[in-house]
Amino acid sequence: MAREVDMSTKYDPTSVEAGMYKKWLDEDVFKPSGNPEAKPYSIVLPPPNVTGKLHLGHAWNTTLQDMLIRQKRMQGYDTVWIPGMDHAGIATQAKVEAMLNEQGISRYDLGREKFVDKVWEWKDDFADTIHKQWAKLGLSLDYSRERFTLDDGLSKAVRKVFVDLYNQGLIYRGEYIINWDPKARTALSDIEVIHKDDQGAFYHVKYPFADDTKFNGKDYIEIATTRPETMMGDTAVAVNPSDERYKDLVGKKVVVPLVNRTIPIIADQYVDPEFETGMVKITPAHDPNDFKVGNRHDLKRINTMNEDATMNENAGKYDGMDRFDARKAMVKDLKDQGLMIKIDPIVHSVGHSERTGVQVEARLSTQWFVKMKPLAQKAMENQKTKDSVNFIPERFEHTFMQWMENVHDWVISRQLWWGHRIPAWYNNQTGKIYVGEKAPKDPENWTQDPDVLDTWFSSALWPFTTLGWPDIDSKDYQRYFPTNTLVTGYDLVFFWISRMIFQSLHFTGKRPFKNVLLHGLIRDEHGVKMSKSLGNGIDPMDVIDQYGADALRWCLSTGTTPGQDMKFSYSKVESAWNFVNKIWNASRYVIMNLGDMKQPKLPAQSEWNLADRWILSKLNHVVNHVTEEYDKFNFGEANRSLYDFIWNDFCDWYIEMSKEILTGSDEVAKENTRNILAYVLDQILRLLQPVMPFVTEKIWLSMPHVGKSLVVADYPANHDEFNDSQAESDMNHLIDVIKAVRNIRSEVNAPLSSPVDILVKTDDPELKKVLEDNSDYIDRFGHPNKLEIGTDINIPKLAMTSVITDAEISIPLDELIDLNDEKTRLQKEVQKFEAEVQRAQKKLANKKFVENAPEAVVNEQKEKQKDNENKLKAVQIRLKDVEDALNK
């Protein structure tokens, strides 16, 4: 009796996914189980920036996290996946400023308070968009715990961390050379600077002596610089103390061109005597190395630029000019005054702001810094303990350690208006600094530092502040911290991962997460990094609209390995859709044949036929393999084995074999087959649910089931009683026979509908019995006119033969075959098996292989050699028969 099935004849992702996410949210299936006996498993979502929509990289990253949390939830863990978003300081402010600029407005026109209101409006708009995208991707997030890096709880935590580090002497304020973004008008950390090759030049300039000194017969020295616009800030010329050429010049004075200010010639080890002239100008306010030289020699620091990289009053007549316009003007003046010796064009690496793209200035500035050495040391020491962070792939631990070993103090202040305001105040009368979690009790006498903290300062606290810290008695903090796995891109090892590790160890005494799974970048099908400028970016929401979330998720998690970049193409998504469609159609067939079944129930083991024993054994293997690969974060390998089992074993063989029984008259056999079909499909849907949540839920709810949602159903477990190597071996022989018949038919274009005699010759009595007992399957798939299975079978000369392990399959083809073609085919078969035999012989002749390889591997090679030798012998006999027939 056919069952009424509410499933279309073709998989339609739009109708399948409609309303499903709301159903899950209404049923609260994404929240922790609350079972105190269950092991906790927690993930914090790397918070996307509220700067725009999610891209394909986000889709990849969140899919992998969702697969983990969904599987663990089904396995009975008390799971929580905490969502959130990052205020993204400079990135968000830059976006809002660009929007305002298009309206002819600057942030200064609005003032700080109104500008920040505008940014909050932006944040709310894009947070809403991101929520919709999370839903469309099917992410099983616990929204009741959602956080934002500027919400009250996290702001309180940030203030505590700043104050504690300050009181511990690990945060300090000082005047240093920092990276400066003149467009955003803020400091940048080293890792926010991207170096690009730019066209530049070495400008060789005359610096005249202040007196009548001569050097090599000239009244000047030659200085080469790439940045003449900073000359007004020169306070010395330096030479190496070991440079014999210039030892008599140390202590002399020269005049800075264009400004006519006298500066000394000094000796310092910093100078490379081999580079250019071996003499360098020292500009302490505009170069980090010059700053250090200046400190050693007590040189004055002259800042010649404003915050926006225009020249200031210290630049004399160039005051108010843009830095690059000033360079051109200075070069012209140097030429006009006969002070330019030559200009050598060069290509050199220049730092640019990661966010605004403009050329970064090295600028003397008073900033707040974190003293990194003690924090880095603790992080490195922790990696030697049992509580170290497990990097996947392992090679990225070296990247982490290397950065920690060479870390510089971290400039954490940013001259922005959007972000965590630095909790420091300056007394209006005395200038005294007060740092505290709360404002001074007499705020009218104090002015708060206008700067905000680097975005990464608050992001570094994400794993523990999202769980309630600094309230260490918080239930979530007690239950779920440290978290289990962080999934993020390998490009964030420096920016984010390192900072989370050292801040967590310092403030909680624990690692922030047990595992950090690193993936690469999404590239287009040609391997080119996706970007807006190249026009090769793909919106994941567009992909979902066309193919569905399940197909996109399958595509993103298949064919990848941890730490590697991924090539994305629509052809891969199309293949994924085809696979989902295959599952859909197979499921529809199964459900239609389940009759009035209320719940799948496996028949007694004694009732299982060969196909039943085989499919359950194969199912158990795939359950164990997928579980193992998830534990190793090898999602691509897990998906590959699932694909092979579902497409090949279940759909192409077991379902097709079930039709033989379901169309028969044995009601007991029919009921058994229905139950096994339903059971295996149910287990498949459970295995697939983490990666294909929508379609599996839809199918599962359409078939006999117990429970409200597949999301919280039990994950498949190992069943030793299913393992049946004999059934697998027997079934493989049966499949090989059927494939051999199909291949022979295909070679001579004999349609399946045309009956042919099928002759199976075997000397193995057990194989003979297996094939005879299951001859119904050979009848169904081979459509024989006559089927003979035995040891003494007379095979006609005019026949096509295929050799499998322990058997020969022959089909007499009378006039359907050309003996010459058959001879050619068999000759190729002989060559193939000869090559296989030689390969095995060579491997087994290798003493190193035999002595060092595991015994099981060596034995496997020996079995392969024996099998191929038997096949070769059988083919050679058939070839001789054909040659004899041709010679008659």
TrEMBL record:
Residue span, Aminoacyl-tRNA synthetase class Ia domain: 20-569
Residues covered by the Valyl-tRNA synthetase tRNA-binding arm domain: 818-881
Protein location: Cytoplasm
Residue ranges that the Swiss-Prot or TrEMBL entry lists as coiled coil: 816-885
Motif stretch ('KMSKS' region): 529-533
Enzyme Commission code: 6.1.1.9
InterPro entries referenced in this protein's UniProt entry, alphabetically: aa-tRNA-synth_I_CS, aa-tRNA-synth_Ia, Anticodon_Ia_Val, M/V/L/I-tRNA-synth_anticd-bd, Rossmann-like_a/b/a_fold, tRNA-bd_arm, tRNAsynth_Ia_anticodon-bd, Val-tRNA_synth_C_sf
GO cellular component: a single term: cytosol
Example GO molecular function: valine-tRNA ligase activity
Catalytic activity: tRNA(Val) + L-valine + ATP = L-valyl-tRNA(Val) + AMP + diphosphate
Domain of life: Bacteria
Gene3D superfamilies found in the cross-reference section: HUPs, Isoleucyl-tRNA Synthetase, Domain 1, Valyl-tRNA synthetase, C-terminal domain, Valyl/Leucyl/Isoleucyl-tRNA synthetase, editing domain
Entry keyword set: Aminoacyl-tRNA synthetase, ATP-binding, Coiled coil, Cytoplasm, Ligase, Nucleotide-binding, Protein biosynthesis
Gene Ontology BP annotations: valyl-tRNA aminoacylation
One Pfam family in the UniProt entry: tRNA-synt_1
Positions bound to ATP: 532
UniProt xrefs under NCBIfam families: PRK05729.1, valS
Matches recorded under HAMAP family: Val_tRNA_synth_type1
PANTHER family: VALINE--TRNA LIGASE, CHLOROPLASTIC_MITOCHONDRIAL 2 (PTHR11946:SF93), VALYL-TRNA SYNTHETASES (PTHR11946)
UniProt note: domains: ValRS has two distinct active sites: one for aminoacylation and one for editing. The misactivated threonine is translocated from the active site to the editing site.
Protein name listed in UniProt: Valine--tRNA ligase
Organism of origin: Fructilactobacillus fructivorans
